[in-house]
C-alpha cells in the first residue's frame, strides 16, 4: 500500500513524464517542419519513451493500491530558434527531471517505502543515460558550430541514433 505522501509524489512524477513527452513532441514537430528528418525521428522516439515512462508509473501506482491521476498537460512551446536551442532545452529539462526523481527517491527513504525506492532505481539509471546522451549531442553541435555541411551530417547521424529504451526494445 502506498502512503498518501508517496502516492502524491508518484502522481506528480506522472505529470512530469507526460509534460516531457509533450515537450519532445513539440521539438520533433518543429524539427520536421524545418526539414531536419533525422532530428525529428530521434525526438519522436524520445517523446514516445517519455510516454512509456509515464505509463510505467501509472501502472505501478494502481498496482500498489493507489489511484493514478492522469493530468492535464502544460502547452509546450511550438517554435524553437535553432537546433542548438532545442538540445540545450532538452538537456536542461532532463537535468530538472533527474532532480525531481532524486527528490522522489529521498521521499521513499523518509517514508521507509523500500518497494517504491527499488522501483525508482530504474528511473535513476535511465536519467544517467539520457543526460549522457543529451551531453554527447551538445558536444557534437558545439564542434559543428554554424558549418552547414556538418549540420547536414549531424541530422543524418541522428536518424541512426535510437534513444535508450527503444534500442533495448529492438
Ligand atoms: Fe527522461 O525523463 Fe523520463 O524519466
Give your account of this protein's structure.
The mean pLDDT is 94. The chain is built from 6 helices and no strands. The chain has helices at 4-33, 37-63, 83-110, 114-144, 148-160, 164-169. Helix content is 79%, strand content 0%. It has one domain (4-168): Ferritin (Up-down Bundle), CATH 1.20.1260.10. The N and C termini lie far apart (34 Å). By secondary structure, it is an all-alpha fold. Helix 1 (4-33) runs antiparallel to helix 3 (83-110), helix 2 (37-63) runs parallel beside helix 5 (148-160) and helix 3 (83-110) packs antiparallel against helix 4 (114-144). The chain is elongated. Bound molecules: hydroxy diiron-OXO moiety. Residues 17, 20, 50, 53, 94, 97, 123, 126-127, 130 line the site of hydroxy diiron-OXO moiety. The site of hydroxy diiron-OXO moiety has 10 residues, from helix 1, helix 2, helix 3 and helix 4.
